[in-house]
């Protein structure tokens, strides 16, 4: 044993150990970014420098490569050392301003920012520590990546900056990277396949060496020889460096052991039904379609999400969940004509627990027959309905389709703008009267209606408490906005259907009542790309007092209802169709199938910077900027 002092405390060290290893083993903090037990120390980051006093001499050196010697006196912190580390951290922050890991370490060292100029991209994370290069070469024996260029252009790349054929996509380089900046798709043409945990129903990843599940007997790690790099290629063996009892036995084989027993308990259990991927119910196609076992692991406090319910598509909390019953049972197509006898009760249990985890969650169970046959099972079924508000609907859902224009996409955009969006998407009219949704509305300051089907929006919300609450908030000053169908339904009169090519024929256009946030107007979207000019002509001819507004792609209008005007934004056109100037029309005398005739209708074609006065019905165009160089005198 070797005796050394670290910060005036004596510690025993093994011959051949480094000062950093002794410090880590005794929980003495020394910052480092380039050390890994499986890689030879090479003192790249210089953050682990310490003051070493021996035989009357004091020097500053890197602790990761300094071997212990008898009588060493180590100082891990001093004005000189602290000053050096802070300057280094500022340099790292200047190179990698986007690394959260560096920011965390800098905070521990008392560094809030960098005085130096950033010369890299804002999302740069690589600190050029070389850990990835060394682990690929020394540990994995591959050498698929290395350093290239010099100075400020130095980088870690594959040969010729092309995909490497020798890369095994083992992920070791990404695993050791202290700032998580390695992207395997830049190195290898192959897509890495994660190792999924069977215990967590594939919702979490596992290592090649792992404990199968918390209650495993014996409760010791096992090595997956189909994934272990040593078993496959004879390389790595990194787990040996972390196992202090030296219990890793790579060559251990399976053994048959004979034991004397007094009795045998047969517990055959049951097979898990695996729905075919990409079938009509969308399993394996849509990320938010889960099996009951997967959702069970999501609910578990010991599961991959610690009991937090979230959508796998974006990690956000869901607002509503549907359970589809009798999938894989009572079904001749999968040769399971019988009832599983458990699905009804565990779906009720999952719905109840889900509502406990997420108050206000909208839960629906779609069933053929509710078979709650055990003791007090029927009482639990009643409690789920009466106390928790779980909705039960007798039906067999044949197909699931994902709405491609959902609120989640817009939710991400609003988050980037600093908002805290909540998606409200009531599936049934009774859901639009639920007090939990009203509470969300009362706490909100802006409302955005997404696209899809304007009739679905109006038929779902018309006359409900949800719409009344939104209207009240709007009267108090809340912002109302919409896109596509969500914009079309904001007016009092709404185009509900009708093809553009037949829109000037009587009886071909369908009109309906909108949400009436904007009076005496009708909005048509995708106006120019879908050729919807005739639709607005027909609406305005039917009631010339209604102003027709056609909004093109990448274009919008900002309304000020108090000043009775709107401003045009975006990169394309907004068309205003004004019927007040109409002098003659045959609309009143037409029979179904006859064409429309209109005289003296007014058209305004506006662009960004234009505005329109709703009172005077006059447009103001953006100012024209004339370059003097283009004017000949």
What order do the helices and strands come in, and which of them pair?
Layout: E1 2-6, E2 9-13, H1 19-25, E3 49-54, E4 57-62, E5 73-75, H2 79-95, H3 100-108, H4 131-139, E6 146-148, E7 155-157, H5 172-176, E8 209-210, E9 222-223, H6 229-233, H7 239-242, H8 292-299, E10 320-324, H9 343-357, E11 362-367, H10 377-386, E12 391-394, H11 407-416, H12 435-442, E13 446-449, H13 454-461, H14 465-475, E14 479-482, H15 485-488, E15 493-497, E16 510-513, E17 521-525, H16 533-542, E18 547-551, E19 555-560, E20 565-570, E21 574-578, E22 584-585, E23 598-599, E24 602-606, E25 611-613, E26 618-620
Parallel strand pairs: 1-5, 10-11, 11-12, 13-14, 17-18
Antiparallel strand pairs: 1-2, 3-4, 3-5, 6-7, 8-9, 15-16, 18-21, 19-20, 20-25, 21-24, 22-23, 25-26
Report strand order across the widest sheet.
Answer: 2-1-5-3-4
Output mean pLDDT: 89
Q: In the CATH hierarchy, what is the superfamily of one domain?
A: Class I glutamine amidotransferase (GATase) domain
Structural class designation: alpha+beta
Using the alpha-carbon principal axes, give the shape: globular
The tally of beta strands, per DSSP, is 26
The CATH architecture of one domain comes to: 3-Layer(aba) Sandwich
Strand content: 15-25%
Report low-confidence residues grouped into runs of 5 or more: none
CATH class of one domain: Alpha Beta
Oligomer: single chain
Q: Into which percent range does the helicity of residues fall?
A: 10-25%
Number of helices: 16
What is the C-alpha radius of gyration, as a whole number of Å?
34 Å
CATH topology description of one domain: Rossmann fold
Spatial gap, N to C terminus: 96 Å
